Every structure is written in C-alpha cells, then in structure tokens.
Amino acid sequence: MKKIQYILIFFLFVVFLTPSISFASWWNPFSWFENEIKTEILLENSSSTESIILETETKSNWWNPFNWNKKENNIKQEITTTAEEIIPGKETLEETTNKLEENEKTALESETAKAEAEKYKLEVEKTRLEEMERAKQANAIRVETRAQVEVKEEENKNTTGVLPSDSIVEINEETEDDRRSKEIEALASNKSVIAIDDFLGNPNLETLKVFCKKAKTLDGTSIIEKLNEDRTIIVKSPVTLYDEMESLCDIALNVTKEYSEHGSRKGETYLVGDRFEWSKYNDNMLLKFSDGEDDDIRIAKIEYNTAIQELKDYNLFAYHKNLGHVREKGISIENVAYDILEYRDEVNVSSKGALGLLKYLHENIVIPEEWFRLRREQFRDNL
C-alpha cells in the first residue's frame, strides 16, 4: 500500500512540479480559465471624443473561494486608478483648446490687418489715379488755351480793331526784324557809335589817333556825378568817350604823364607811348625751343606762343617794350621775350621773376579792336 502511495506522490511531483521549474504555464490547470478583461472609458469634450481602453489582468481563480470577491474589487481599483491618471490629460486638452482658440483669434486679427492694408493701398492708388487724371485735364486745358491764344494772336496780327468810340486803328505786332531795324537806326544816328565804326572799318594806328582826338567831344556810356561850375551843387554828367578809353588813347597819342606821387621819381614826367611798340602778328614772333632747357622755361614759352597765336585775327596791337634789358625803339616782341630770359642769367635774376615778366608781357598786350567792340556793345545795351 505504501508503495502505491510513493508511486502516486512521484507521479504528482513529475506532473506538477517539473513543468513549474521549466517556467511553463500550460500545465497550470488553474490558469486555463483566466480571461483578459478590457474596460472602455469614454472621455467627452466639446470638439472630439476619445476612447481609452484600460487593460487589466485578473486571474479567474474560480476554484478559490477566497478570491471570488477580490476580482470585482481589483477591477474597480484599476478603473479608479486609471481615471485618476486620465484627469491631468483632461486639463491638457482644455489648455490645448484655449491655445487653438487664441491662435484662431490671432489669425483672424492678422487677416483683418491684411485686409485693412489692402484697402489702404487701393485708396492710395485710387487717389493717385484721380490726381493724374486731374493733371491730365489741366494740361489739356492749358494746351487748348495756348492754342486758342495763338490762333487769336494770329487773327489779330496785321488786322484792324474797332474801339468803343468806333475809331478804327491798325494793330501791328512788332517783329524781331522791326526791333533790329530800330536798333540799327538808333546806333547809326549816334555820333559815338559812328566814330567807333569808322575805326573798326579800317583799324590802324592813324585811324586810332583820329578817333582819340574826336572822342574828347563824344559822349560815352557812363554817367558820373560832379560839381557844377559854381561848385555849389552836384550834377550828373555823362563822361566822354575819351575818358572811357583813356588808357588806350594815351598810348596812341603818346600823352605825357607824371610819375606816381608815391614813387621815387615824383614830379618827373614820361611819355606813355614810348613804353609801347605797335605791331601786327607774324610767325617770327613765336619763341623757339632749345634742347636742354628747363621745364619751367619750356612751359613759359608754350604759354607765350599760345597767346601770340591768338593775335592772328587782329590788325593792330601794342606790347610793353621796357620789360627786358634792351629798350631800344622798334624792338620786336619776340626779342623782348628772349631778352627777358637772357637778362635773367646776366644779372642773376631768379627764374621765377623772369618767367613772371614773360607772362606779364603776353597777358598785358593792348588790342584796340577788342576795346572798340566792347564799347559798341555797351552802347547797344543802353538802348
């Protein structure tokens, strides 16, 4: 009997204990009837419904009378715990909803601002187009008015007009040719202008002397204030043409002048014309270049030659002859220029001083024709 019991115990040991050591579960007859319980909880909000599934594992120990009431308690506890965990999620959904509402509000405000900006642009463009249209209309009116005025002026030109007193007068518009004719007539009757034109028609030293003698009795273009003969009042009197061209006429007539009262030769006199020579342009007046001369001298010669070549268009000019060492009568202008450069080396005059004298020579040439043309223009402007 005991042997049978030992065999039965061994059999049970093999059947129940050995699989447990191998971590197998299929052998456990008490777990064959366990079921997975799923509990679904619905959370509702204003926008959507979310389904949350709570999974719990409860052993259906139906054979154990001590666990029959524990199953329901475990389920309730699982649901309560899961619901408590879900509550914070509920608050997150509300915050998300608020953020969505704020974003929608911001987007709406942005769209409103864009719409207002577009509206403003359209108003500005409309205003600009209206201004362009007004400007176009005003321009058209001006053009039309100008055209009407021109037509009216053309109609009135060389026509007769009826005055209120029924007197008829002829309306003639003064043309440029008419004004020019009147100007010519006025100048032609002016004795001073006639004398100027006589010289310009034949410019030479003799005709210049004739003019200067006559100019003392001719009116100039300027007005001066001076005392009357009794020296009691100040009167305005036109200067003579000689007064306005005194420097030129003094050279032509070789007038005697006194030295400046501040000079060392105070009280002494000199002949103005003796300081000048009269001539007409020729190519020999140009200075020749020398090899090895300084750049300053070469530049001074170029400037001198340029000024002398501009005298081709004139019939008469005067230049200072007393700037160099040699001051003999009839010395040519080119010889004066060469003498200035040579005299510099002779008396050890600085280069800048000699070149300054050369520049003074060609910058102070007296050209009567220029004087006369300038004076004639002044008479014309005074008309």
Describe the structure in your own words.
- The chain has 383 residues and is α+β, with helices and mostly antiparallel strands.
- 55% of the residues lie in helices and 15% in strands.
- A hairpin with a 5-residue loop joins β3 and β4.
- α4 (191-201) runs antiparallel to α5 (205-215) and α8 runs parallel beside α10.
- The protein has four domains: 1-32, no CATH class; 33-151, no CATH class; 188-275, no CATH class; 281-314 and 317-366, no CATH class.
- The chain is elongated and about 185 Å long.
- It has eleven helices and ten strands.
The best one-word shape is elongated
Strand order of the largest sheet: 1-2
- Radius of gyration, in Å, reads 62 Å
The separation of the N and C termini measures 171 Å
Main sheet specs? 2 strands, antiparallel
Helix content: 40-55%
* Count of helical regions: 11
Number of strands: 10
Structural class label:
alpha+beta
Quote the average pLDDT. 75
Describe the oligomeric state of these chains in a short phrase: single chain
Q: What would you say about this model in short?
A:
By secondary structure, the protein is of the alpha+beta class. Helix content is 55%, strand content 15%. The protein is built from eleven helices and ten strands.
